[in-house]
Design goal:
By secondary structure, the protein is an alpha/beta fold. The chain has helices spanning 3-12, 43-48, 73-87, 107-119, 136-142, 162-170, 185-188, 191-198, 200-207, 219-224, 275-287, 292-301, 328-340, 360-371, 384-387, 399-409; strands at residues 16-17, 28-30, 33-34, 37-38, 53-56, 67-69, 98-102, 124-126, 150-154, 174-177, 211-215, 230-235, 241-247, 251-258, 261-270, 310-314, 317-322, 346-351, 378-382, 394-396, 415-419.
């Protein structure tokens, strides 16, 4: 079946799922497969659950004309998403703005803030949660409806050429790279590899007359954007939109200067390292003519609930939960920010950093050396990345062990930072 024919079926049944457990009657099910699963084996189950059609790429024993056989179900999903995205290029009101956001740190927070700002004035669709990969991005595109006025798409990557591949079906009109950090070094090989991979977004914008939002504080970023047709800058110095940290002792308060003067914004985020994320969202909002008061209100009302820079009150204790991901750069700034916060009874609970390849031992040693420079009440390290290095702190194999330790302590009036890579699941410490 050609993608144009499949698209007509999609228009009749515009909800796509890849998990039979989430299927609703009338959905289209794509039977994806990976090292530990094969959706083709669930074709009949999908039909029984009410799927309108099931797209497979293997022979099945299901004799039903609702089964659509393709060479590659994942590729077909991506092609369908691309076809759907292209429909927004030919609307009478013009091409729908598709804003792509990538980077090593802060991309999800930036995406959430930008979505909050744009949603105050436009019907805006965005990536749900962290669905920012080769499966999540097509699913995000296919959720965009005809009433869309804006789309904000998050792009994650572990290896070179991934961002380049996403751009082929997202076809972003605007783009932003938050930063270049030492994340996923196992796949990228080095910080230079990270920069090269993330720059694939700017390369696309150069080739397609796009617009880039650029943090002018990053000289490498500025140089990388050279050649892009439209460049909008922000930063902490002489930019049209600039900002500074006013207070980061608890929740972050920033001052943003734009053409209307300076505006203070009291956020519900933790850490001065979120200033560039806020600046990016403000810049996107101003570019798309969102009123200043709406930008301020949107950012002030945004409350993180995704284990990113999330402050939780638990009895007399203040907990900073930043456990959705961790790499050497984000771990460093989180520890530095925590050290600067008010309070003397501070407990660090850190999970190991993953996907660092041959740099893993060195990077974990660097974090341990950094921890030793401050005075803490307790330090708990979780995971093999830390445990393989000799240290004087409390060490556990997993977050479940750390949770039992925390329960037994009965801390009062404590400040607790919980951070670690996604696979360590440090949020379980609070269960």
């Amino acid at each position: 079946m050609q993608v144009a024919q499949l698209y007509q079926l999609y228009l009749e049944h515009p909800v796509v799922k890849t998990d039979t457990r989430k299927l609703q009657e009338g959905d289209i099910f794509f039977a994806l497969k990976g090292p530990n699963f094969n959706g083709n084996h669930f074709a009949q189950q999908a039909l029984d659950a009410g799927a309108a059609y099931v797209v497979v790429d293997e022979e099945t024993n299901v004799g039903d004309n609702r089964i659509i056989k393709t060479e590659d179900a994942l590729l077909t999903l991506q092609q369908l998403a691309k076809y759907h995205r292209e429909q927004f290029s030919f609307r009478p009101e013009g091409n729908l703005p598709f804003i792509a956001i990538t980077g090593s740190n802060g991309k999800t927070t930036t995406k959430e803030l930008a979505h909050a700002v744009l949603s105050s004035s436009y019907k805006t669709y965005t990536t749900e949660g962290n669905l920012n990969n080769h499966i999540g991005i097509p699913l995000t595109l296919l959720k965009i409806k005809n009433d869309a006025e804006m789309a904000v798409i998050e792009m994650g990557a572990n290896n070179p050429k991934e961002i380049e591949g996403y751009c082929k079906y997202v076809q972003p009109t605007h783009g932003l790279i938050t930063n270049f950090g030492r994340a996923h070094l196992e796949g990228f090989g080095s910080i230079e590899g990270v920069r090269k991979a993330k720059s694939e977004l700017f390369n696309y914008l150069k080739e397609n007359n796009g617009t880039a939002f650029v943090n002018a504080d990053d000289e490498f970023m500025v140089g990388l954007s050279d050649g892009i047709k439209n460049i909008i800058t922000y930063g902490t110095d002489r930019e049209q939109i600039k900002g500074k940290v006013l207070d980061s002792s608890t929740f972050l308060k920033v001052g943003i200067t734009w053409e209307d003067g300076m505006e203070s914004i009291q956020t519900q985020l933790v850490g001065g390292y979120n200033l560039p994320n806020i600046l990016a969202a403000v810049t996107i909002g101003k570019y798309f003519n969102v009123p200043g008061e709406e930008i301020k209100a949107s950012i002030e009302n945004y409350s993180p609930s995704n284990s990113r820079s999330q402050m939780i009150m638990q009895g007399s204790n203040i907990i900073i939960l930043d456990a959705y991901n961790a790499n050497p750069d984000s771990m460093k700034v989180a520890i530095e920010n925590f050290a600067k916060m008010e309070g003397s009874n501070k407990i660090l609970m850190l999970g190991a950093m993953m996907e660092l390849g041959k740099e893993s031992q060195h990077e974990h040693e660097q974090i341990i050396n950094m921890i030793e420079q401050f005075n803490w009440n307790k330090v708990v390290l979780v995971g093999a990345g830390f445990k393989q290095i000799k240290n004087s702190f409390i060490n556990f194999d997993n977050s479940e062990e750390a949770r039992e330790w925390l329960k037994a302590q009965h801390f009062q009036n404590a400040h607790i930072l919980i951070k670690g890579s996604r696979s360590i699941q440090m949020e379980k410490v609070l269960e």
